[in-house]
């Protein structure tokens, strides 16, 4: 193989990628473009040009986006030399075919898809036909640690003799270190290795990785992230995101790769590339039609590649930061945060004009218009926003026109200049309502426009933007712990975004799970951060039913639904003798990312210095008694929870208010629960009823007392129906509670 590297004018880094298993029937010049993420989190771009000899079967019909240009060399002049090489290669292939009589022991599904990936330019070559029919697709399965459920890790398409030596496994613990800023993991993290280090792989091979995406929107895209053992990463655009596997549709990101390593799928800010020529260009990204960058003729002396990303800012996030910083109170709104990449060697010969949306008066009705409305669980909307915000301080409405607006401030970011600073010399003008413009005479990596209602010090503006960037990477969550109603020794623990809490609780009820304890207090967490769960008191846990007493961790990924299922039991069966149940506590710590150890098998080595003060605690209870008595108690608790939820759903808003007034509940308790569930009357009523029930002594006849309050507000019909359901153990959704009821019937027999 002969490698020849040629520098390109608009690329910053040049690097060679060599393809193995060289075919001898032709040479191709391949230019592969990918995006590289260095260790500092910033992205750069490189162009790899390598002269690779490879199979025509794999090179023909090549449609991979990694390959920009492809030139087939004239091979007619070297026929004699190639004939000797072909004969040698035929003997090698025949030896390989004879050595592969054993079966593939890994659980897999194989199919012949050679017609899609190969063409034979030399029909007389019998070995080429043999190689063509050996192209297979294999399904690789893996089992996560402490789990019994087998998952599909990936599908790989390659020659059959290569598939026998490829190993694929899921490395769940590495996900914390894989994701970077503004990225969200949507798949398992997998590693693909070759068991035979001397085996030469005929790259490219095709890898399809299944994923589950909850939301994407206009501003985000799905990319395949390829990392090495040192976590140096490149990004590849998938050829497709859907495919057929065994006659059923599977959501998979399919990509052709030229090397093995660590693979994952991430949802990241969409990046668009434009080439600005000497004639100039009006750059309009597809993410937002209001954004444009006008490059006049002569701004560059030669063609330049420009890349742009748009990061929308939710007005609710601005409101949240205003409550946290007194110096930021004057900020009314912001423009989107714009990320732009230019080659550093190309200076602006002329200023460029930028047009950005920036609403002068944030309106709750337009909350979703400035962000992608499909991302209902985005980090910027999961905030605890105070109810009372003073929106009265604002500037007067300006008429459309080229009027300079002194209150609009442009801030730019350059890493070589130590970050953010205010551009006092740039005049930001209001073009029309909600649209502004300004001119840039130099390149900035990021820029944003702030709209304060009064004059602010430059240091306060810079502080606000830094806090804004940090807040965009965080999300408000809480931890939910539920017991299985038919087996209280089984618990499920989830990390839930605040906005998704009510839906998650509904789903847990459908799974025949029950609470309390109540969800934990809300706290901030970033994508990929780890939460350490330590069991204390008289209860400890196990993931496999054998090894008790361990600490467990949950890695938060917004689109991956972090979930942990454990089995609990008492440490000392004679402990807590003065209570009707065993008592324990789950102490939750947040592990800083810099404390996570880089290890393919275990990415977290625990010691006392790895975590700080606990961020929350969850009380844990386990009832005393023989299994029969325990089952009876669980059935009663399950029935109570079910009937209270049914009752909450039956009450109208007027009935609910009357019932709240009738029950002995504090006004502050009612207001707090209303604030927790502002848009869901059923959830409000259900939580208040559960709170009222827990506040009563165990000896109280709760059914008779609740029926009395229902008759008091004029709903005797509900009182009678509630009594009938309780006495006959009628669940409102019998199909979801059949297992519990059957267990109770069998117990009585």
Automatic annotation (TrEMBL):
<feature type="domain" description="ZU5">
    <location>
        <begin position="270"/>
        <end position="442"/>
    </location>
</feature>
<feature type="region of interest" description="Disordered">
    <location>
        <begin position="96"/>
        <end position="126"/>
    </location>
</feature>
<feature type="domain" description="Death">
    <location>
        <begin position="659"/>
        <end position="723"/>
    </location>
</feature>
<feature type="compositionally biased region" description="Low complexity">
    <location>
        <begin position="96"/>
        <end position="110"/>
    </location>
</feature>
<dbReference type="GO" id="GO:0007165">
    <property type="term" value="P:signal transduction"/>
</dbReference>
<feature type="region of interest" description="Disordered">
    <location>
        <begin position="37"/>
        <end position="59"/>
    </location>
</feature>
<dbReference type="Pfam" id="PF00531">
    <property type="entry name" value="Death"/>
</dbReference>
<protein>
    <submittedName>
        <fullName>Death domain containing 1</fullName>
    </submittedName>
</protein>
<feature type="compositionally biased region" description="Polar residues">
    <location>
        <begin position="37"/>
        <end position="53"/>
    </location>
</feature>
<feature type="compositionally biased region" description="Polar residues">
    <location>
        <begin position="111"/>
        <end position="126"/>
    </location>
</feature>
<dbReference type="InterPro" id="IPR000906">
    <property type="entry name" value="ZU5_dom"/>
</dbReference>
<dbReference type="InterPro" id="IPR000488">
    <property type="entry name" value="Death_dom"/>
</dbReference>
<dbReference type="InterPro" id="IPR011029">
    <property type="entry name" value="DEATH-like_dom_sf"/>
</dbReference>
């Amino acid at each position: 193989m002969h490698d020849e590297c040629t520098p390109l004018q608009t690329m910053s880094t040049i690097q060679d990628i060599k393809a193995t298993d060289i075919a001898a029937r032709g040479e191709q010049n391949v230019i592969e473009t990918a995006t590289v993420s260095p260790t500092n989190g910033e992205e750069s771009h490189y162009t790899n040009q390598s002269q690779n000899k490879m199979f025509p079967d794999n090179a023909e019909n090549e449609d991979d986006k990694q390959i920009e240009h492809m030139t087939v060399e004239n091979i007619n002049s070297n026929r004699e030399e190639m004939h000797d090489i072909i004969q040698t290669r035929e003997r090698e292939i025949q030896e390989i075919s004879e050595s592969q009589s054993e079966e593939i022991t890994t659980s897999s599904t194989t199919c012949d898809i050679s017609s899609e990936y190969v063409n034979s330019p030399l029909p007389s070559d019998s070995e080429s036909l043999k190689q063509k029919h050996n192209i297979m697709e294999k399904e690789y399965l893996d089992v996560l640690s402490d789990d019994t459920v087998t998952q599909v890790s990936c599908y790989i398409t390659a020659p059959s003799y290569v598939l026998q030596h490829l190993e694929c496994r899921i490395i769940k613990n590495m996900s914390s270190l894989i994701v970077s800023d503004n990225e969200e993991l949507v798949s398992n993290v997998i590693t693909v290795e070759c068991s035979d280090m001397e085996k030469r792989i005929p790259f490219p091979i095709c890898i399809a990785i299944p994923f589950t995406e909850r939301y994407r929107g206009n501003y985000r895209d799905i990319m395949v992230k390829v990392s090495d053992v040192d976590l140096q990463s490149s990004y590849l655009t998938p050829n497709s995101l859907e495919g057929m596997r065994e006659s059923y549709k599977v959501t998979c990101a399919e990509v052709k790769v030229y090397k093995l390593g660590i693979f994952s799928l991430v949802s990241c800010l969409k990046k668009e590339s434009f080439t600005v020529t000497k004639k100039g260009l009006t750059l309009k990204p597809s993410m937002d039609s209001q954004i444009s960058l006008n490059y006049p003729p002569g701004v560059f002396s030669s063609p330049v590649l420009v890349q742009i990303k748009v990061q929308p800012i939710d007005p609710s996030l601005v409101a949240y930061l205003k409550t946290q910083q007194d110096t930021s109170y004057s900020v009314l709104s912001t423009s989107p945060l714009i990320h732009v990449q230019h080659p550093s060697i190309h200076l602006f010969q002329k200023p460029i004009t930028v047009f950005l949306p920036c609403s002068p008066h944030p309106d709750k009705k337009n909350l979703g218009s400035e962000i992608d409305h499909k991302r209902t669980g985005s980090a910027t909307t999961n905030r605890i926003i105070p109810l009372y915000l003073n929106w009265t301080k604002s500037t007067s409405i300006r008429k459309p026109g080229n009027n300079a607006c002194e209150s609009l401030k442009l801030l730019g970011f350059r890493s070589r200049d130590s970050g953010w600073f205010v551009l006092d010399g740039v005049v930001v003008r209001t073009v029309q309502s909600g649209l502004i413009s300004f001119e840039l005479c130099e390149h900035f990596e990021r820029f944003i426009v702030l709209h304060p209602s009064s004059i602010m010090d430059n240091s306060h503006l810079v502080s606000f933007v830094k806090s804004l960037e940090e807040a965009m990477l965080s999300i408000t969550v809480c931890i939910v712990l539920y017991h299985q109603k038919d087996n209280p020794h089984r618990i499920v623990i989830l990390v839930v975004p605040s906005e998704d809490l009510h839906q998650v609780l509904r789903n847990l009820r459908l799974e025949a799970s029950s609470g309390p304890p109540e969800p934990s207090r809300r706290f901030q967490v970033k994508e990929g951060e780890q939460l350490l769960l330590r069991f204390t008191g008289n209860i400890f846990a196990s993931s496999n039913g054998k090894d008790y007493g361990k600490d467990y961790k949950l890695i938060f990924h917004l689109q991956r639904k972090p979930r942990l299922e454990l089995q609990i039991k008492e440490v000392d069966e004679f402990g807590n003798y003065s209570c009707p149940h065993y008592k324990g506590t789950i102490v939750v710590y947040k592990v800083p990312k810099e404390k996570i150890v880089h290890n393919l098998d275990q990415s977290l080595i625990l010691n006392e210095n790895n975590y700080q003060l606990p961020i929350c605690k969850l009380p844990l209870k386990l009832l005393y008694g023989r299994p029969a008595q325990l089952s009876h108690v669980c059935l009663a608790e399950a029935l109570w929870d079910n009937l209270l939820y049914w009752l909450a759903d039956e009450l109208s808003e007027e009935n609910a208010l009357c019932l709240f007034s009738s029950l002995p509940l504090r006004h502050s308790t009612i207001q707090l629960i209303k604030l927790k569930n502002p848009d869901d009357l059923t959830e409000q009523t259900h939580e208040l009823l559960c709170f009222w029930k827990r506040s009563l002594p165990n000896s109280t006849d709760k059914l008779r007392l609740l029926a009395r309050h229902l008759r008091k507000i004029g709903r005797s019909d509900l009182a009678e129906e509630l009594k009938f359901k309780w006495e006959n153990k009628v669940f409102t959704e019998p199909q979801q509670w059949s297992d519990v009821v059957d267990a109770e019937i069998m117990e009585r027999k």
